Amino acid sequence: MIISENNKIPLPQFRILMKNTDERLNLEASTNEEYFKKRTGIQLEEDVYNILVKMAEHTPFEGSIRLVSGASFPDIIASGYYGVEVKSTIKNQWKSIGSSILESTRDQNVERIYLTFGKLGSPVEFRSRPYEECLSGISVTHYPRYQIDMELEAGETIFDKMGIEYDVLRKMENPVTPVSKYYRSRLKPGESLWWATDSEAEEGSVPPTVKLWSALTPEEKMLFTIQGYVLFPEIIGDNHSSKYQRFALWLATHCGVVNTNIRDQFSAGGKVDICVDGKTFANVSAVFGRINRYKEQIIFEILSTEPQLLQEFWKVRTIKDNRVKQWCEIAASYCPCSNKGQEKIFELLSAIMWQ
Fold first, then answer.
1. What are phi and psi of 38, to 5 degrees?
2. Which listed residue, of 49, 153, 207, 273, carries a Cα 20 to 30 Å from 138's Cα?
3. Which residue(s) pair with 129 in the sheet?
């Protein structure tokens, strides 16, 4: 679909739509706070979409709002030209980790994006701003992600710091190169830089600085843990201590993070009971409790990660259409027990992912 410059709806009207959407979201949050506190990321996208559709009635945007969600960027598209990316945090703060700077799944017709952010810690509140105005920095995992700060002052975005406009950076063939140069210039005495050269910089190879796991924010720890589950499924099924080696090596060499006690991040907690759709899986590893807690984020990572990267980390020749099922199968295959035991692990993982 191609949107003509002459036919696209002017930006001021989209601003009004987003302002009205924020007001309705905050009105509903003030009267039904507990509802929003329990919403997952995907469910919140649906909530924002439904209110956008309502607010678009009797405006030029009526009938043009689409929820694309999943692995697409942004989550919602209006009139084929504008987009809305939905993010949230369960904490009482306006900061979080955002989407990849590579924007490889971006809808190419979308030119202007707003970020709608849900602060789901009491009091629940919503804010929307132009996407590029609330990106304060970059966190590097297996691909660089923006850092979100909804309270960012004008002139303090990562683009202001780097001296590159958002629209220029996102259209570069390799946006990692200017990011690497920027973080190299900001190294402090005593810091190391595990960095590819500019000609070698590519997705998955550019941690800005080296730091200890204990120095990470809770959000960064959660993100790395989720990526550990997704990229290294042996962590779930294998009982040997060596199952953490690939993750530890990747964490240090690709992310610049050193964890001297990596086992506790996954195995602490003993045994738990998990109830899924009325069926109880008793006395299973606490790792499955964490997977149950983070399932929405795990599914998102599986769906949004490049197929070539999954092939490399999963050690498979092809990525199947049902990636989540394939991930469950691979994780279960690492279970050092009988086929019946592997079937039980696969059943438990499948139940968690599709409940």
1. -95, 0
2. 49
3. 115
Residue 159 half-sphere exposure, CB side, CA atoms within 13 Å?
18
Q: How far is CA 178 from the centre of its chain?
A: 22
Element containing residue 271 per DSSP (H, E): strand 271-276
DSSP-assigned letters across all residues of 140-165: ESSSEEEEEETTPPTT-SHHHHHT--
Give CA separation, 172 vs 143, 147, 161, 168, 175, in Å: 16, 19, 18, 7, 5
Q: Which two tokens stand for residue 95?
A: 């900061």
Q: What is the pLDDT of residues 293-338, one digit of tens each?
A: 888 889 888 988 888 788 888 988 889 989 999 999 998 888 766 5
Closest CA to 230 of 101, 324, 145, 143: 324
Q: Where are the alpha helices (DSSP H) in the chain?
A: 11-31, 33-37, 41-55, 158-162, 166-170, 176-185, 218-231, 234-237, 245-255, 262-267, 286-293, 295-304, 307-314, 323-333, 339-354
User: What gap in Å lies between CA 316 and CA 254, rounded to an integer?
Assistant: 21
Burial class for 154, CB neighbours closer than 10 Å (0-12, 13-18, 19+): exposed
Least confident of 69-78, 82-91, 329-338: 329-338
The predicted model scores a pTM of 0.62
Host H or E run for residue 114: strand 112-119
pLDDT (tens digit per residue) in 127-185: 999 999 999 998 765 567 899 999 999 999 999 999 999 999 999 988 878 887 788 78
Q: Are 160 and 143 in contact (CB under 8 A)?
A: no
CA atoms of 55 and 78, how far apart (whole Å) = 12
**Helix (H) or strand (E) segment spanning residue 259:** none
- Residue-wise pLDDT tens digits, 279-303: 788 777 778 888 888 888 898 889 8
> Which of 301, 221, 206, 185 has the alpha carbon at shortest distance from 255?
206
CB 94 within 8 A of CB 112: no
